[in-house]
Amino acid sequence: APQVHVGADAVEAGVAAAHEIAAACSRAAAQHGRVRMLFASAPSQQHMLDELRTLDIDWSVIEAFHVDEYVGLDATDPRGFGAWLRERLFDRVPIGALRFINPRPVDVAAEAERYGALLASAPIDVACIGIGVNGHIAFNEPYEWEIEGGPLVARVRLHDASRQQQVDDKCFDALDEVPHEALTLTVPAILRAGEIIVTVPGPEKADAVA
Fold this sequence. Notes:
Blueprint: H1 10-32, E1 35-39, H2 46-52, E2 62-66, E3 68-70, H3 81-90, E4 97-99, H4 108-120, E5 126-129, E6 153-157, H5 160-168, E7 181-185, H6 187-191, E8 195-198, H7 206-209
Parallel strand pairs: 1-2, 1-5, 2-4, 5-8
Antiparallel strand pairs: 3-7, 6-7
């Protein structure tokens, strides 16, 4: 059954999540010598990532994937999710391997297939994710996804509520700057993970969590 930890504040919740993630990594590494991980990219993950960097983790055995990326932004744009994770984690730890979604592919459908094939090439051990204000998981909008079947990576059109969250989170200055489309791991792709740690701070997300 899922275990729930309620922190006194966002920092405490993030610290607790980081320790759960480190323990999950240790279990996976002990079992088969490597750890394949999924990472969400959002301010809600900041305290968790800050703590995770301080913990005794063998980063060299970790192969990291991010769970979603805007379509159309340059890969180096700091507002993109790959760049966000690089700045806050991957450029600060000796990560073994990074697998990023290309946000500006020649063929978006082919990129979804490429990334899906990478995910499917071996089991996923640990997923570090959040939940959006409107209930989106990665960038799967509420009531627009299935639990089973379908591709591991999909092209999706973002609801205005999800785009507005990016402005409210100060990731973009204005709504018209937020891309309308993204490539996202689907819910079945995330559920393939052996262990899933969900970090969701803030009263504005209480309804979505409930």
